[in-house]
Amino acid sequence: MAITVRDAVQNDINQMLPLLEQLFAIEADFKFDSRVQARGLALMLDGCGKHRAVKVACSENGAILGMCTAQTRISTAQGRISAVVEDLVVDRASRGRGIGSRLLDEIGNWAGDRGIKTIQLLADKDNHSGLAFYRAHGWKSTALVCLVKSL
Asked: Are 82 and 73 in contact (CB under 8 A)?
């Protein structure tokens, strides 16, 4: 089966929500709420896309099998723009077919086209298969810890 990776559009949100639900099921810090996640996806897809990317992997019949999002930010530590991967998820039934790798490659291409040299992401510390996947793709751990404060 041929898989294509393309930029997501607003009409894809309903197919992307179940993917986020699968992702949030393994992340201890987040609770899935379709209204909240739909609003977040709509914000990601709004505008010109210069500072953010939403990629989807589709089957021949147009079903969305995976997704990956990224956003730019300015890194004072690096003295340049970097990118942060927000979500990478492949539908359970479609894992092990290289879809996650393709999505990360497309995000890497998007970042490279913008002169970005570093991509970062946060991963759940207990997502052992996800962490192994990232390590296998050249991602390195850091000594940094993520802290969050609600306002």
From this structure: yes
Q: So where are the chain's domains?
A: 4-136
Q: Are 15 and 67 in contact (CB under 8 A)?
A: no
Q: Buried b / exposed e across 26-61, counting CB within 10 Å, b at 16+?
A: ebeeeeeeeeebeebbeebbeeeeeebbbbbbbeee
Q: Any bridge partners for residue 68, and if so which?
A: 55, 88
| Model pLDDT, residue 139 | 95
CATH T-level topology, domain 4-136: Aminopeptidase (3.40.630)
Tokens 């479609």 sit on residue? 94
- Strand 80-90 to strand 119-121: parallel, antiparallel, or no bridges (unpaired)? parallel
Q: For tokens 């879809």, name the residue.
A: 99
In order of 42, 45, 67, 79, 101, the CA distances from 119 in angstroms are 23, 20, 17, 14, 15
* Residue 131 confidence (pLDDT) above 80: yes
pLDDT tens digits, residue range 37-58?
999 999 999 978 889 999 999 9
Q: Identify the pLDDT of residue 110.
A: 96
